[in-house]
Here is the input.
Amino acid sequence: MSNEALLSVENLRVVFNTRNGQTVAVEDLSFSINKGEVLGIVGESGSGKSVACYSLLGLIPMPPGKIESGRAMFQGKDLLRLSENDMRQIRANKIAMIFQDPMTCLNPYLRIVDQLTEVLLVHKRMNNKDARLKAIAALEEVGIHNAAERIDQYPHQFSGGMRQRVMIAMALLAEPELLIADEPTTALDVTVQAQILSLIKELQQSRQLTVIFITHDLGVAAQMANHVLVMEKGRLVEQGETQSIFKNPVQPYTQKLLSAVLTTAKPATNHAIDYSQPPLLEVKNLEVGFKQYSGVWFQKIKNIVKGVDEVSINLYKGEILGLVGESGSGKSTLGRSIVRLVDAQGGEVLFNGKDLTHIANDDLKIARRDFQMIFQDPYASLNPRMTVFDTLAEPLLVHGLANKNTVLEQVNQLMDDVGLDRRFLRKYPHEFSGGQRQRIAIARAIALKPKLIIADEPVSALDVTIRAQILALLLHLTEKHQLTMLFISHDMSVVRYLCDRVVVMQKGKLVEEGITEELFGAPKHAYTQQLLAAIPTL
Here is the structure.
């Protein structure tokens, strides 16, 4: 690692003009990064970490954005004062970027070969044959097997992890000196995340790359970065060597971020779970299949893929059962099939002794008073045309648990339960933050005083501090209302903190289950061991 600064940023200020006036996104930011170094930038959503780096490459929309002041010196040139043509040359040859969601960055209408070779044809003046060969070599370097065949496929034919590998290959084709990675593993499963992080680290070392790594995951930052910047509300609050910052943080905000990292088991609770009683929920040999069709006009069933393959679980009153596994493991399908959002082809779902898989729709509507679901994305599950009051009042009125005279009092109590100000009742979902929207979704789920809550990845899209708040809220509500919960997640640290027992699924099958601390302490199945080994730690 060199002591020579490759990039030096001084007093950067970025603003956005909005309907409500000017918003400062980055305020007086200064930092430098040396050749061969990996610099982590951490902070919550809205802290300005992504805007700062996008500004360096001229990627923020102007207007409404505006770089009001500052310098960004890169190899003797101020990036903030380059013409668009000069900046295009920098982006093509000197500085590359890996974005968070490869599906929105890759053109769905173009084959991978067309997207990879474009930079070589336009900026490196290669012929088609040489460009294709170099693109294939780049795919092989990032671990994509059968690259010569797969290069002719389209983005939708790749998994999330493989699409991110394509994005890394594309970024490195121009042989940049500085690589900016903006939350490159946020949307990935823990095992795929570990693979991508390992790949970036290997490429950084083999190519002597300089890397700016933007993340809200402190464990990832600790694993990847030599130095770290901590940002809050557009300002730099602390910087230094990664281990020094994480072991001895000075600023209260850094301390708050670190305190929200889940490293322990579930906190002690006041209730004991009686496993000698019959379970509240019994899932017996459940099977859920999805049909695959062949042909375009005269479609025939080609295959049936089993999303859930003869899975059996028990859930006891007052228990929080964790259901873990990677994307495609069948965990969300199992949760949805329990509440009949997905139909099962075999097996039974017994809730309080009643089989939910065969009851009529009218009876199902009545039964659903006792079990509710919290979804991953509250913005998608909340009606954007309904106020908070309407959202919370609707289930109470539909099920006859309130009338026009009593509904306001009950809705106010729900707002109190989830820690929201009653003055928010006349607002719409878009007027809230992600954490506040999830609180509204939780309030709606507990409105009918259900016995069972199925929570499907309810904190995966939230910042570390907001995640800690929502988990604490869920623990509080399960005790206060004596709730039973099936908690679906791919985040093993969250599951360890929240759950009494854990069930592990892989490719539609149940592969291991046990008491949380026993499973974490001595996992038996190789897949469980793989999941636990992939958890990034401070």
Summary: Residues 190-207 form the longest helix (18 residues). The chain is about 35% helix and 25% strand. Residues 270-347+450-458+474-537 form a domain with the Rossmann fold fold (CATH 3.40.50.300). The radius of gyration is 25 Å.
